[in-house]
Amino acid sequence: xxxxxxxxxxxxxxxxxxxxxxxxxxxxxxxxxxxxxxxxxxxxxxxxxxxxxxxxxxxxxxxxxxxxxxxxxxxxxxxxxxxxxxxxxxxxxxxxxxxxxxxxxxxxxxxxxxxxxxxxxxxxxxxxxxxxxxxxxxxxxxxxxxxxxxxxxxxxxxxxxxxxxxxxxxxxxxxxxxxxxxxxxxxxxxxxxxxxxxxxxxxxxxxxxxxxxxxxxxxxxxxxxxxxxxxxxxxxxxxxxxxxxxxxxxxxxxxxxxxxxxxxxxxxxxxxxxxxxxxxxxxxxxxxxxxxxxxxxxxxxxxxxxxxxxxxxxxxxxxxxxxxxxxxxxxxxxxxxxxxxxxxxxxxxxxxxxxxxxxxxxxxxxxxxxxxxxxxxxxxxxxxxxxxxxxxxxxxxxxxxxxxxxxxxxxxxxxxxxxxxxxxxxxxxxxxxxxxxxxxxxxxxxxxxxxxxxxxxxxxxxxxxxxxxxxxxxxxxxxxxxxxxxxxxxxxxxxxxxxxxxxxxxxxxxxxxxxxxxxx
Amino acid sequence: xxxxxxxxxxxxxxxxxxxxxxxxxxxxxxxxxxxxxxxxxxxxxxxxxxxxxxxxxxxxxxxxxxxxxxxxxxxxxxxxxxxxxxxxxxxxxxxxxxxxxxxxxxxxxxxxxxxxxxxxxxxxxxxxxxxxxxxxxxxxxxxxxxxxxxxxxxxxxxxxxxxxxxxxxxxxxxxxxxxxxxxxxxxxxxxxxxxxxxxxxxxxxxxxxxxxxxxxxxxxxxxxxxxxxxxxxxxxxxxxxxxxxxxxxxxxxxxxxxxxxxxxxxxxxxxxxxxxxxxxxxxxxxxxxxxxxxxxxxxxxxxxxxxxxxxxxxxxxxxxxxxxxxxxxxxxxxxxxxxxxxxxxxxxxxxxxxxxxxxxxxxxxxxxxxxxxxxxxxxxxxxxxxxxxxxxxxxxxxxxxxxxxxxxxxxxxxxxxxxxxxxxxxxxxxxxxxxxxxxxxxxxxxxxxxxxxxxxxxxxxxxxxxxxxxxxxxxxxxxxxxxxxxxxxxxxxxxxxxxxxxxxxx
Lengths: 520, 506
Hints:
The complex is a heterodimer.
Chain A: H1 14-20, E1 21-32, H2 71-83, E2 87-88, E3 95-98, E4 108-111, E5 118-128, E6 134-148, E7 152-156, E8 168-172, E9 179-185, H3 195-213, E10 225-235, H4 244-247, E11 255-260, H5 263-282, E12 290-295, E13 300-306, E14 316-317, H6 328-335, H7 342-353, H8 357-365, H9 369-377, H10 382-390, H11 392-400, H12 411-422, H13 428-439, H14 445-452, H15 460-473, H16 475-482, H17 489-499, H18 506-516
Parallel strand pairs in A: 11-12
Antiparallel strand pairs in A: 1-9, 1-10, 2-5, 3-4, 3-14, 5-6, 6-9, 7-8, 10-11, 12-13
Helix pairs in contact in A: 3-5, 9-10, 9-12, 10-11, 12-13, 13-14, 15-17, 15-18, 17-18
Chain B: H1 9-18, H2 23-41, E1 44-47, H3 49-64, E2 77-80, H4 107-114, E3 119-123, H5 157-164, E4 170-175, H6 181-187, E5 190-193, E6 213-218, H7 221-231, H8 249-252, E7 262-266, H9 276-291, E8 295-299, H10 307-322, H11 345-356, H12 359-372, H13 378-401, E9 404-408, H14 424-428, H15 435-440, E10 444-451, E11 458-464, H16 470-488
Helix pairs in contact in B: 2-3, 10-12, 10-13
């Protein structure tokens, strides 16, 4: 039986740690590319396929099989490197990282070692400055390199879901050979107490960037983007974490928390490790250099395997592959395909659309930027596009647990709906009903409106009759309005709408009521 | 009726095309001979009687129907057990892969099938191609048809013995440090290691990826050229495969005159440590080259002396990684450790690798693992790669003075089975003349130049050419072969005692 427990270790409150220590982070992010085929063979890469159905002699490591580089993956790697302001190697090789593990078919991983495809870049990350504004933190990118993913082990039995204590293990090699890019930051110093949120902001910004590049699904919950967080503490010698004095203090021993697979967890795991390191150091013990497992449920890390800088993977250049040597022309051609950086794009769109900071944040958090952009392009007003996508549609998507864009409503539909409202053909509640119809697959907005007989009554005679009837039925309210309590008109408008079975223009009804009562 | 198995492959192809005999008869003649002699020679590990005959009959039917067929259609071939063959077990001579049946064909096997050549079976070899004698096969040694108490060379002793004993007219070999050329030399046959990248390695079980190359084994230079052209050429499944037309080796094998050709004798691999009878035949052959019009010069390749040391760092390093996949998890031998009820994956890996690999394989895995280790990499693997560069430069310099280089293929004739198994260093020295070509990626060919006076066993001459100039090998070898055959009144194999006439050793 495993004696492993997830009991939280002693920690020191974060604020107290920050008075005495300076945290340093290093983040390693693995991104699965969304290429149609694997890194070194022609197998499909679809997520969630039946186990061991997307395999061939190459990715199963059968005797005699040889790898061939997927050029689409190399191009994605170069584009990622360029978007991260890296230099692109004019000549680099793959290397074999040798170690034995059942989910690794060849018992070596084809990766890159001392010749990464991209190196020496940075990503500017915006984060809350704690005073209502934003600050920019520059995250140094040491390298981005290409490699292949391993298979996936499923440990059955035992209590932990880990290999120790399991009754048996199953391996799915569908994932083996999926192209991965590993993006490694420089040791990030100078973040101070903002370290956990900068970690989160970096991973978030990186995710946006990769999404904009279109190179990955970047779904952390599916493992197509995974983060390992290295954390160490050193003595705090200055109130300014970016000061020269502070930078001169040697780095402490680090731990590497593996597979932190949500943005929130990145922040929590970094924060937890900072508080745990402080407790260990306070107890007079050294930090053990090791990997740590993050437990999402309990919010703690537990000890993994010891890791030293001398871990011996016996790297050597992969003799089965020829070097990758992108020409200057290749690199420039790929540079020309880079999208506008997400932060700049957001600023431009916010200005174009006239959204407040808060509104823009909602849009971004709802992941609705692209769809709103498309909706505005299709003719909707920015305000209406935001209202529908972050309001009604977002609620529906949320309650059904699907992506907002996966419900069958298109930007063109929303633009059309907004057009009907602006033309005065539908009011708000009718528009909502039309949307119901569209969601139910009854057709486009105009079609649904026709089919359901939803249209504002344009015949003023019917509206006037309704207004007169309502005023007659509610003389007390009418008197209040005549006395100047204009806000009481709302009650009468409601009654008019009821009379008209909702098919009236509320603004028009209001104007008519006020006119009849002589207060207009 | 003549014994069809004694014909050259070229003559077999002509006879089939002319309707003199059928492929079924030709294939059956070989299968009969294999059935009779393989129990003695152990040249084949697997014989695919049904598959070979089915291909032969299909070729006969196609020919009868007037279909146009590839030149070697119906000519049988043997394949070293290192190449994957669908439906035929492929073991690389190792217990580790006993009974493993590949689900895919090596590219070269696909090409043999496209050429419609019946595949007779899979030939014996040193385990994972590690050795120079075929004694390191997990399935017992192959015997040299010239003398059943002697080794047929290695690692491809099975292919060369099969060709020398008329158990196949043609065979596929693989050459990492001499495994085609040295067996050819000690069995009186022809063998070529093409330019690195000239023949696809896809589906050929890797020993050392940067050194391995596939090539033909045959009884004549022209036959080797015929098979060379079948298997050579670009393969998108092998990144290291050369994307260029195949050198015109067949055309070159018609060469009869070497006027104006500059032949370099490599000083460092043509003297010291070589058996007297080997040197005598080599020197005579050089005189014959002069008689054919060649200009002979002596060249020096000073870094060849480090080739052996570099080779025995690079090969084990790459092999240690290439052989890591044999871990009992997906295929191959799986045994549990003794006395462990519920072993872990790691324990099963360890026990299986212990049981599945032979001593020579373990020796090289240990050497390679050590050489790649952190702290030793620069001193060993890194240095060896530098030596490799220096050897390539030696070749460049030599090829500026000569169009081809020549040397004896192996320092000795075939040694006795068991003579060198105690001392790996002695065995390693068999490849002293062949290794430089693998390190530099240049092509090499071995052809018989007679028998040594002291033991009556065949001697090989090695021809080396610059990368992608494989046709030069065939031009020189074909002209020399023609001249020697004329002088001898036939090929050197005619002088070999029949297998049937020899006493079978216990």
